[in-house]
């Protein structure tokens, strides 16, 4: 069911400092910053040869990564996103297996303009998993 | 400097349960378990189309993931491993930029039989980064 790893998301308290780490210190290719107010984050993409890392900084008062950064003030790996071909079929299979889908169970349009779902970390060894239909 | 994402490592308290989650619930291809006593972990590989996820369970009394699981009893994303062409050149560049390499600064032979180094999470937004020479 799982396809490619679309991205690994890292929540950071200071996006400028994070961009400097990845661009100057690690020598990676880092995109311009994009504010995504409807998702409550500002994001940059670190392009690797086979996938990407997304660095996320909170944006606005109700950012979905605010609680994570309260618990992990330095930042940390926040979620991993896997591609699926059919997100409704994936959701139905997961729910039949007893896994919990966050929110109302219906896909939302994610930061890349594609339908996404998040799975409850308690059902997957403490890892927040995003599924994205591609 | 950074090449492919070689793997994302997830520390888990119960490898059998984790294998069941990834194989049966998520429908992923999961390897047989491999005990790596010299690395203090038992590991399985989840094969994705473009990279892999490694599920790590502590093995023995001095497992390098024991402290992480004490802080995160359900498990969680533990580190991300990037490939580099020349690990000594990578280390020297990182140290010149002020980043801290864990241990004595010399590469060790990692779980895949290749030279590896770990970078201090405090220098990279709370993310433990492994570099592997390929």
What does this structure look like?
Chains A, B: Its EC number is 5.1.99.1. Chains A, B: Belongs to the methylmalonyl-CoA epimerase family. Chains A, B: Residues 4-134 form the VOC domain. Chains A, B: Keywords: Cobalt, Isomerase, Metal-binding. Chains A, B: It catalyses: (R)-methylmalonyl-CoA = (S)-methylmalonyl-CoA. 2 copies of one chain form a homodimer. With 134 residues, chain A is an alpha+beta fold. Chain A has a single domain, classed as Roll (2,3-Dihydroxybiphenyl 1,2-Dioxygenase, domain 1). Chain A is 20% helix and 35% strand. Chain A is built from 3 helices and 9 strands, in the order βαββββαβαβββ. In chain A, strands 1, 2, 3, 4, 5, 6, 7, 8 and 9 form a 9-stranded mixed beta sheet that branches. In chain A, strand 4 and strand 5 form a beta hairpin. The longest helix of chain A has 11 residues, at 15-25. The model of chain A has no long low-confidence stretch (mean pLDDT 97). Chains A and B meet through strand 1, helix 1 and strand 6 of A and strand 1, helix 1 and strand 6 of B.
């Amino acid at each position: 069911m799982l396809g490619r790893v679309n991205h690994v998301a890292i929540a950071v308290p200071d996006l400028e400092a994070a961009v400097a780490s990845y661009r100057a210190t690690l020598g990676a290719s880092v995109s311009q910053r994009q504010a995504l107010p409807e998702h409550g984050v500002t994001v940059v993409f670190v392009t690797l040869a086979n996938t990407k890392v997304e660095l996320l900084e909170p944006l606005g008062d109700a950012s979905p990564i605010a609680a994570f950064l309260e618990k992990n003030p330095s930042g940390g790996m926040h979620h991993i996103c896997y591609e699926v071909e059919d997100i409704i079929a994936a959701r139905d299979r997961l729910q039949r297996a007893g896994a919990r889908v966050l929110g109302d169970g219906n896909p939302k349009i994610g930061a890349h303009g594609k339908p996404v779902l998040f799975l409850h970390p308690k059902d997957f060894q403490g890892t927040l998993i995003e599924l994205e239909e591609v």
